[in-house]
């Protein structure tokens, strides 16, 4: 069996290693440059590869192709594979049959990283032998090749879900759905929503789907489509006999006739959206039969995720917050919503078809100045130019932070929450977040 891997990054190299171990003839092809560290791994494992090109005769003879999530379906080589009827699948689909471990799959437009990390923290603190993978950390396929875990918590993007055929998580979570990556879905929101719901398409009556019952896109989909999984909703406003909710400043989770309660103020994560993440993760912990005391302790000591509403420093009584992971409007909505003081907002980057109107009320209420950090800021300036007193354009992070420092007074907050992708000025959102933190430390 010939396995061709498109993309020589973390998921590609992990898939190649697993494929080799399982007796496939493996070839890795990357149209860009493969990092030296990954090349070394491929060489040491005797895996053939090429970079900065796709040689068709070495690709179109595949029995199966694993496509890295970053490669769009519209790429010519992918189109040719599809025309030839060669299955093009994701790393998750390829690796899942080679492990007996239970998987918990987590998707959503926002909150999936925090929910994934918190779920992992809960299970690990309870002493479960659990791995973390998917869109985060070490490649799932690579971990399956070493095969040491009984369960995995997987963060799954819509692109990874697009490439599944038979994969099913035992427990699935959809944190929320809002327009994102529409450039990859023919600018049709419903295509993107369907893509997220692929997480439950193979689930059976013995599996679970945990979802945000306050989310319009999710509840509408569930009204008109069927899943066989047992439904476990969570909500900030409704209550359930089976599900998770907030009542009288307490989080309540009721699953399989068992109840769990915890005061919201004792949960380490702050903000309404984080209460949702906590409800989703706690629902998993209850399904995995983790002791209440362990859940309580884990929820009260969880440190949060880097680049997601991360408190950097307080300088002259001004708080600097790194929310570089906010690459869409919905994520920035949560960030602005959780601000409790006048805010200088650093925003901008590569726009994925954003509608800034959703932020209008929050900007009027909370934002005193906007710093545009992007190559093209026209849409942001058009949207908010008349709404805030001060609007500045900069083209590097140190200028953004120095300008923010000038515009603040005691008690204010500086929030980096770009609502956009980072590729115009930075390598990725992590690079953007680290540059922000460095610039703040250099003030």
Automatic annotation (TrEMBL):
Q: Which InterPro entries match?
A: Mur-like_cat_sf, Mur_ligase_C, Mur_ligase_C_dom_sf, Mur_ligase_cen, MurD
An individual GO BP term: peptidoglycan biosynthetic process
All copies of the Mur ligase central domain together span: 106-284
Q: In which pathway does it act?
A: Cell wall biogenesis; peptidoglycan biosynthesis
Q: Which Gene3D superfamilies does this UniProt record tie to the protein? A: Mur ligase, C-terminal domain, Mur-like, catalytic domain, NAD(P)-binding Rossmann-like Domain
Annotated residues that bind ATP are located at 108-114
Q: Where is the Mur ligase C-terminal domain?
A: 307-420
User: Member of which family?
Assistant: Belongs to the MurCDEF family.
What's this protein's name? Answer: UDP-N-acetylmuramoylalanine--D-glutamate ligase
Q: What is the lineage of its organism?
A: Bacteria, Pseudomonadati, Bacteroidota, Flavobacteriia, Flavobacteriales
Gene that specifies this protein: murD
């Amino acid at each position: 069996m010939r396995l061709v891997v498109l993309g020589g990054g973390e998921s590609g190299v992990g898939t190649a290693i697993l494929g080799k171990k399982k007796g496939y003839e493996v070839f890795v092809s990357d149209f860009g440059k493969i990092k030296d560290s990954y090349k070394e791994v491929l060489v040491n494992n005797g895996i053939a590869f090429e970079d900065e090109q796709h040689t068709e005769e070495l690709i179109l003879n595949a029995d199966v192709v694993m496509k890295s999530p970053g490669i769009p379906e519209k790429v010519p080589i992918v189109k040719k594979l599809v025309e030839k009827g060669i299955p093009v699948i994701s790393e998750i689909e390829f690796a899942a049959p080679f492990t007996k471990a239970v998987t918990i799959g987590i998707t959503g437009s926002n909150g999936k990283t925090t929910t994934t990390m918190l779920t992992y923290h809960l299970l690990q603190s309870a002493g479960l032998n659990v791995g973390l993978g998917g869109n985060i950390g070490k490649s799932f396929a690579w971990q399956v090749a070493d095969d040491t875990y009984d369960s995995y918590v997987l963060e799954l993007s819509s692109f990874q879900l697009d490439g599944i055929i038979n994969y099913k998580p035992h427990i699935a979570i959809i944190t929320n759905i809002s327009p994102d990556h529409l450039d990859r879905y023919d600018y049709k929101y419903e295509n993107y929503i369907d893509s997220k719901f692929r997480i439950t398409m193979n689930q059976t009556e013995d599996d679970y789907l945990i979802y945000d019952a306050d989310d319009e896109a999710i509840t509408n989909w569930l009204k008109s489509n069927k899943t066989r999984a047992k439904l476990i909703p969570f909500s900030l406003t409704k209550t359930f006999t089976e599900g998770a909710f907030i009542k009288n400043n307490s989080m309540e989770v009721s699953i399989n006739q068992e109840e769990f309660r915890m005061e919201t103020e004792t949960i380490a994560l702050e903000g309404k959206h984080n209460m949702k993440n906590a409800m989703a993760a706690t629902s998993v912990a209850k399904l995995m039969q983790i002791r209440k005391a362990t859940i309580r302790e884990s929820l009260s000591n969880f440190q949060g995720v880097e680049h997601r509403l991360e408190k950097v420093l307080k300088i002259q009584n001004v708080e600097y917050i790194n929310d570089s992971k906010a690459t869409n409007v919905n994520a920035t909505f949560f960030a602005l919503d959780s601000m409790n003081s006048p805010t200088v907002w650093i925003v901008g980057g590569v726009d994925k078809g954003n509608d800034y109107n959703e932020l209008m009320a929050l900007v009027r209420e909370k934002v005193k100045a906007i710093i545009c950090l992007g190559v093209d800021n026209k849409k942001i300036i058009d949207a908010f130019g008349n709404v805030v007193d001060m609007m500045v354009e900069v083209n590097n992070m140190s200028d953004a932070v120095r300008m923010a420092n000038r515009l603040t007074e005691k008690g204010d907050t500086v929030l980096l929450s770009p609502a956009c992708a980072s590729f115009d000025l930075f390598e990725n959102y992590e690079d953007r977040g680290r540059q922000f933190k460095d610039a703040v430390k250099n003030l």
